[in-house]
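Homework help board

Subject: predicted structure for assignment chain

Our instructor gave us this sequence and asked us to write out the predicted structure in token form, then describe one feature. I got the tokens but I'm not sure how to describe them. Can anyone check?
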Amino acid sequence: MARTEKQKVEKPLIDGITRLGGKCHKFECPGRVGAPDRIVIMPHGKIIFVELKTLEGRLSPMQMVWRDELIGLGCDWRCLSSREEVQEFVREMEAHVTSKVRH
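My token output:
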């Protein structure tokens, strides 16, 4: 993903998650390619691995391996390809945080 295109999706993700009290860290795994771009850590222990793509972007074979491994381990893994998808994801995380506060 071109840097400016990635920033159009990445910045709203970081800002939205931070606003909700979560963390949105760059995720790297030295020595292994294809790792998700971000790890989102929300209040109450919810953790989501996030891959960012453009609308035309496709997962590489190694990104598919990561996806399958993480999902196979029971992890939450997402691929977000637009500002609208990021906004929907942030709304979902807001509902998660709100529901945990009420209970």
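Reply (TA_rk): Your tokens look well-formed. For the description, you could write something like this. The first strand starts at residue 23 and ends at 26. That's the kind of observation they're looking for.
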